[in-house]
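step=encode ok
step=design start
structure_in=
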């Protein structure tokens, strides 16, 4: 029975990820059809044109809601952590709670070549996707690409 619950939570978390991410018309969401690595590749669009700015998404779900100020650590193996760090673009974890359908995100790869350890404490915090959460996430991705571009010049 537990396997069925885990499968249900995973399927519902994927559906919620699509709902949250498609709230913005500036995102093109592509589901990756394999059972390893990132779950979604998301590209930012502007004026109906692609920008080349992409980020990866790993989706997680849990049955209980997060209480105010509750810290929740996802078990990420060293192998997965290394995988995320090897990707050449930002990667975030999206966490969805089934009890209240709320969404949260945190970065697992957000470093730039000029500052690989920048803002690690801030990146590890769960941020809400409600309200302006998606727009804030987009701004962080845009900031990452701006920092990358400035580190090259």
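sequence_out=
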């Amino acid at each position: 029975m537990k396997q069925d619950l885990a499968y249900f939570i995973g399927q519902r978390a994927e559906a919620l990820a699509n709902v949250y991410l498609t709230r913005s018309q500036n995102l093109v969401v592509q589901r990756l059809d394999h059972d390893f690595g990132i779950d979604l590749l998301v590209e930012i669009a502007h004026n109906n044109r692609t920008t080349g700015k992409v980020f990866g998404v790993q989706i997680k779900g849990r049955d209980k809601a997060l209480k105010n100020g509750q810290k929740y650590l996802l078990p990420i193996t060293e192998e997965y952590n290394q995988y995320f760090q090897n990707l050449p673009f930002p990667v975030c974890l999206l966490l969805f709670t089934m009890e209240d359908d709320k969404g949260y995100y945190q970065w697992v790869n957000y470093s730039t070549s000029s500052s690989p350890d920048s803002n690690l404490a801030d990146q590890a915090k769960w941020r809400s996707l409600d309200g302006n959460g998606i727009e804030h996430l987009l701004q962080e991705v845009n900031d990452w690409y701006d920092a990358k571009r400035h580190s090259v010049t």
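step=design ok
step=annotate ok -> Residues 30 and 49 are 16 Å apart (CA to CA).
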